[in-house]
Amino acid sequence: MNSPDDPFEEKRNDSGILRCPFQGEEVPMILRHADIKEAAKDWKTFSSDAPFRVPIPSEENFRKMRQLPIEVDPPEHKPYRKIIEPYFKRAKNPEVVEKAETLVDRMVRESLELDSIEIVREFALPLQSHALTYLLNVDEAEAETWISWGIHVFRDGESGEMKGETLDRYLNERIDQAIEKPRDDFFTALTKATFQDRPLTKDEMLGFANLTFAGGRDTIIHTISSIFAYFAGHPEAFDFLRTDPRLVMKASEEFFRVISPLTHIGRVCPEETEVHGSTVAPEGRISLCWASANQDEAAFESPSEIRLDRKPNPHLAFGAGPHVCLGALHARLVVRTLLTKLCLHLSAVEILDAKENIETEAEYQRTVGYESLHVRLHGLNP
Q1: Rounded CA gap, 340 and 81, in Å?
Q2: Is 113 helix (H, G, I), strand (E, B) or coil?
Q3: Which end of the chain, N or C, is surrounded by fewer C-beta atoms within 10 Å?
């Protein structure tokens, strides 16, 4: 079972660097697994203290506030992270797990009753949105608003500036409501949080909330659609996973490795820096290419093969170092639950029509999920 083509293989095996222009700036992409792990830990050389420039492409046109805690370095990063970490750890809460299981089971059963379903917007987007309400402990009806934003809060449909304003307006309203009528939810927690013995500023509250809704949204959706497409080509995988429930955990990690829905992330060099033979000017950016690291033969045996029982699996789909993804537990809960329920109810996935989501840059092209994926689901007991 082969994974998608690896567009970084040649440069990874050659220099370990791919110089790629992004928004008029030539950014060296670090490609090797070991080099990326080392750079991710070296926050003094490769800083995240760079508002709007950590994502690639940068987001200064889409938001007005620094995203927290991702756009600050240690030592401030740790206390900032601790403010919202309890909500992301709710993915281990038995009540949240049960709600997620009930949600996915219902959605799979309902999809089986349909002649066809479009997975990206009719399944993955609602699943991600409803599951997020459980994590943040907000009214599940909020999911309908979030669904209306599309796959990405900045880059789906209308202009990014307009979408950024929509998200900003929504978050301001929810924070103001939390101040006026506190509840046991994510927004109220922000209004009551402190940093260095002082209340959070409004911009800090917005920075946490902005990242929560902007980060991880499209990546979960692309992972879900890619999993459905995989099963369409490999129906025997259902039988394999049903042989041992413990395989679902390993298969989840393998899907994260292979799909790697976030290709890379940026870091800024405060001073002139040599990066494997490539000079980065002061305040210039480099990129940590997770997708390349996850195909590195030095870290993975036969990385082009999809092995649903792969172990060990030191993938970097959720990053590395102090900024390892806050939403990893949530993503794992969603994907693990999805695989369990698909194996429980399905015998096959039939693709009726598909349009891949192709990420195209000057120096590489890779498929990241689907723009649309129309399928017909076949049950175990037709």
Answers
A1: 31
A2: coil
A3: C
Low-confidence ranges of the chain (pLDDT < 50): 1-2
Name residue 226's amino acid: S
Quick one: DSSP state of residue 145?
Answer: H
Work out whether strand 273-275 and strand 346-360 pair parallel, antiparallel, or are unpaired: unpaired
Distances (CA, A) of 293 to 31, 151, 263, 290, 316: 6, 25, 10, 5, 7
Per-residue CA distances from 323 to 49, 142, 149 (Å): 12, 28, 26
Is the pTM of the predicted complex or chain greater than 0.85?
A: yes
* Cβ contacts of 102 within 8 Å, gap of 6 or more: none
Q: Judging by DSSP bridges, how do beta strands 25-30 and 284-288 pair with one another?
A: parallel
- Residue 348's SS3 state is strand
**pLDDT value, residue 123:** 98
Tokens 């750890």 found at: 89
- Among residues 219, 266, 211, 199, the alpha carbon closest in space to that of 84 is found at 211
User: In this structure, are strands 265-269 and 284-288 parallel, antiparallel, or unpaired?
Assistant: antiparallel
Instruction: Indicate the angle between helix axes 77-88 and 202-214, nearest 10 degrees.
Output: 50
Handedness of CA 239, 245, 246, 250 (dihedral sign): positive
- The answer to whether the beta carbons of residues 341 and 108 sit under 8 Å apart is yes
- Give how far Cα 208 sits from Cα of 165, 181, 201, Å: 16, 20, 11
Task: Please give the structure tokens belonging to residue 370.
Answer: 């689907």
Q: What is the pLDDT of residue 332?
A: 98
